[in-house]
Task: structure prediction
Amino acid sequence: MRRYSIFTLARNALTGHRNWPRAWRSPEPRPRYEVVIIGGGGHGLATAYYLAREHGIRDVAVLEKGWLGGGNTGRNTTIIRSNYLHDESAALYDHALKLWAGLSRELNFHVMYSDRGVMMLAHNTHDVRIFKRHIYANRLNGIDNEWLTPEEAKAYCPPLSIDRGARYPVMGAALQRRGGVARHDAVAWGYARAADALGVDIIQNCEVTAIRRKGDRVVALETTRGTIETGKVGIVVAGHSSVLAEMAGLRLPIESYPLQALVSEPVKPVFPCVVMSNTVHAYISQSDKGDLVIGAGTDQYVSYSQRGGIQIIEHTLEAILELFPIFSRMRMMRQWGGIVDVTPDRSPILGKTPLANLYLNCGWGTGGFKATPGSGHLFAWTIARDEPHPINAPFALDRFVSGRLIDEAAAAAVAH
Result:
């Protein structure tokens, strides 16, 4: 493990980091790779890392059209949880949650994972019933989730208002204590550095412009930095999945929507957990810098915009103030948007495609960040062995033909 004294850190800071080693190489693309991963976000970098570490496949390139983590990885609110309803989803997300717990040690890079707890508020009889159903289902799968009374929810998160006269009074909450947050850019950097150390080529500013096929196989990718031949291709590009798939002649059951978030001015530590409300469509946590991180639901229209509509922000802040009136004088500092790709059943597509050597990782909707390590681990298995891992086998593309859908709309209702 590389260690630095405080004097080394100070010297590098005062000299403009001239002697600071690069975290990963910046190689020129080679003419051919055994595997090419399209997409340099958390899922793509994790896939490359596990291909090299778990399966010994190091002749791998990660192609990113911009900079690492510049897409949805750097444009989300970093919530981590596994309290999904269906057995298949619970297994998928809990696989990721278990990897989160040891990820900093695994990568030798502090990803700032904090298991501070995720609390989901119930405001009506329907909420109470559906959340208790989630709790019972989670317990059957060995996943922690518990019911809190309004008073217990207030004790766990003191800023929460449980005024019974509110328009949406808090009638209770479901709490997953292992849930929490991590630092999104640190996750991308940690996986990038670890993958690079194993020989993976990470190539930024390299946009894929065409996918060349020969029969039912992909033989090469046309990019802004030349042609790259390859034996296998994994598409991991979040909101632009349908665009890349169309280059290969595939049509996906996906729609892309803007997803907005914003942060406040920083304040002292005041918010100890993550609180979500599907009914009022808002959720909130506090970052290590002190700003309140606030998220909204998806916009109503399909788009590749990374801005979104102002009415969504207004609605979200109104909802936050109903739940947390003490924040009424807080100033909002900046707003941003990401692009989420959503499937009809609100569950991801993770597996093979009709093309023999093309693999697909997409459709995570508003829940992609929480799955990052599990997604990469399972996708690497699928690419390396040309067959899905038992955990991701139910999330195949052909379920939209067979009708074996995994409907998680209730668990994934508000953007998170």
Observations:
- The longest strand covers residues 255-266.
- The mean pLDDT is 93.
- The radius of gyration is 21 Å.
